[in-house]
Amino acid sequence: MPLLVADTEIMRENHASVLVVLVMWVMAGAWNNATPLRYVTSVGLGNFLMAQEKALARGEKTLANLTLSSYCQCRMACWSHLGCRAVSMVWRDKEVECRLSQFGPLESQVLSKSSATYIFWQDSVRGIMYEEVRRRMYLVPNEEMSFQEGKALCMKIPDHHLAIAKSQEEFKALLDVQARTGISAFWVDLHTGLNGPLWGDGTQLRDTPLWVNYTTIVAVNLKGDLIYRFRMGTFDNTPLEETLHPICQSKYLGRDSSTSKRSFLG
Length: 266
Known about the structure:
alpha+beta, Hepatocyte Growth Factor, Mannose-Binding Protein A, Chain A, 2 domains, seven-stranded mixed sheet, 6 helices, 16 strands
């Protein structure tokens, strides 16, 4: 069925909107340590995430391998290719090596690589939920698994890890995820260290703002030397052999909304 004029104009606007977002992203220096992962919302094209210094591993099956002149062309090549759910872009001299994939990061091997950008659509990450909550992405996979399996799965998604909660906002996000899913207990990246519960990034739980502000809410059983789960608003230790749903958490998001060329130009 042929496109109507109105449909063509919508496609032009959508193309321009992504172009504007990507140009603004490059002009702003693209990335900094505070916002290593960008989340772009677009009604017309679908929401997607952009991870810097990441690329598909060599040998990964692709839909197409292209050599193009810009990141924007590469991004639009994926959008227009039936079945493309992610795209790996590596800048080489004045060209972009563009690799289109039908799989999201959970079904692919994504590695660190300089001069690279990896884009994947939000709906390519399947689970009970994969949503933005309080400026981070949170994934709850469909299956229960061991603590170590949960850690490994979360790390497959660029700039994601098994959830930690060092601040009030992160603790509230865990409560939000629990409310949205109706699941009572999850794996989080908390285990017993030499001086008490220790987050996966090496921070002592008792040294965080969360401990100071939630001493009556965070009821941690300090006895034992096991790992911890988040259960009904508290952290308690549990045997390694237990299986639970992990909560995967992204780093803090830089956020963009897709803006039409007309509104961008004023």
